[in-house]
Every structure is written in C-alpha cells, then in structure tokens.
Design a protein that fits this description.
- This protein is an alpha+beta fold.
- 32% of the residues lie in helices and 36% in strands.
- Strands 1-8-9-2-7-5-4 form a seven-stranded antiparallel β-sheet. A two-stranded antiparallel ribbon has the order 3-6.
- The two termini are 29 Å apart.
Length: 145
Amino acid sequence: MEPYSVNKKATFDYEILETFVAGIELLGHEAKSVKMGRFDLSGSHAVIRGNEAYLVGSTIHPFQVKNAPDNYDPMRTRRLLLTRKEINHLLGKLNEGLTIVPLKSYNKRGFVKIELGLGRGKKKADKRETIKKREVEREIRRAVS
C-alpha cells in the first residue's frame, strides 16, 4: 500500500498524538489525478464547520490540464468523511488547542483515504532537537557502512 502523497512537513512541525483515517469527497477527474500522484498535502489542515470536517489548503492538480472544467479550482475545500463520533471527539480535542493535520493519502479497496493526525505544534527548540537527532542518526549510518 504505497501512499499517493505524504505530508513530510507535518511530522516536523507537529507532535502527532493520535491518528484517524477519513475518506475524502472528490470529483471524478480529481480521483484520477490523485491516483496518478498529483496530490499535494503540504501546508494543508482540517477544520470542522457545522458538524462536518473539511480539508483546507491541499492541492489536486488537474488530470488533463486542457480538458479540465473551466471553473475548476485545484485548491478548493474538500469534505472529509468521518463518523459523528469521530467528529465530536475531534471537536473536544480542538478546544484543547490541538490541530488536525493530514499526514498521507493512500488507496484502500479503490477508495482514496486520508490519514489525519491530531497534533500539537512544536516550538523552535523542539524542531532544532529533531534536526540534531536526524543528523546524529545519519552520522551513525555513515560510520557503520
């Protein structure tokens, strides 16, 4: 199960506490485009409005650029398919100052799914610590090889 797209920045900018799987409501040509890997999750997040979850800030480039609908907006807000229980749980967590961040998108039995992470934003010092850990691991791998 290879992911269609991965939001690498999410794990760097946020400390992920919980993960959820959600479906996403797509148009036909958008689904084809996502399956071709033309989906960008970087800089996107999920919001809850009126008891529905939406993905904001993601980009799905047109499947065929010259054949795309005239009014197609690649950055439009897309509805996420979650159960009422999950939405209520997320609403409670959002009141605690957490953020819903998409981590990756993948295929499950022909449907496009989004893995969402409930995360707390990292401070600058935490990000520096992450960079140091990564560099130390890289040095260890070089020394072993």
